[in-house]
Amino acid sequence: MKIYILTIFPEIFSSVLSCGVIGRSRTQFEVINIRDFATNKHRAVDDAPYGGFGGMVILPEVVMDAFDSLPEEARAKVIIPTPRGRLFRQEDAAALSKEKAITFICPHYKGIDERVFELTGAVRYSIGDYVLTGGELPALVMIDAIVRLLPNVLGNFQSAELDSFYGKWHLGAPVYTRPRVFRGLKVPDVLISGDHKRVLRWKKMKGLADTLKYRPELVEEKKLTEEEKELLKMIKDKKGGIDVRPDNQNGRSSLPKKGAG
Ligand code: 6GU
Prior knowledge:
Layout: E1 2-7, H1 11-18, H2 20-24, E2 28-33, E3 46-47, E4 57-58, H3 60-68, E5 78-87, H4 90-96, E6 101-105, E7 111-112, H5 115-120, E8 123-126, H6 136-147, H7 158-161, E9 181-182, E10 185-186, H8 196-214, H9 226-236
Parallel strand pairs: 1-2, 1-6, 4-7, 5-6, 5-8
Antiparallel strand pairs: 3-4, 9-10
Helix pairs in contact: 4-6, 8-9
């Protein structure tokens, strides 16, 4: 896959795209500095918005000149990260991982002149209901989600299948490693049983129980398979050995303080 990124902050991309799983992937990244296309005398890339109210808007001409410098393949799939877009989801990452080339145009300041959306045929995506200073981090978030789904990128592709939201609507299960007891906290016995079927069932049940606990708004009757209905009933009836107590989310440990008591 080839990913083109148009930005006024190319520095933001270098470390993320060269590290870890994304860095090792064979994706070709081309980061283009929009400022290189500024031809006005101060090489300005922004100007005040029509209508006032302050802030700065990226000039359409520099963005379009940068965009027009890209090869044909870069025009097929264009994404502009913006809080005024559709929420980016796992399905979008999966669909985009099938593309040959994707171009991200990163807004900054108050945004990019609206005409750029129209002229490039861009799709708008938001990564959540909060406002960030620019589209660079959202672009990286989307790129990470897309690239890890490319064939041969995750060492053990099976590992994507039990992920939260991978072909499912709910969260995945938590993970543990050595040692079996750490500071008094035990790894669930089932994970040490060596019984694959039981482990898989526990993962399903625990993923559902945690969805109920942390993201209850995701649990909708009509989305549930018969197996999920049955598992959720067991969870609610406190059968199946899953702890359903709400846990402490205020950052403090639920363990007694050292020296207390
Ligand atoms: Cl895509 N851009 C900005 N600036 N803020 C956001 C966002 C995108 N998604 C959520 N917040």
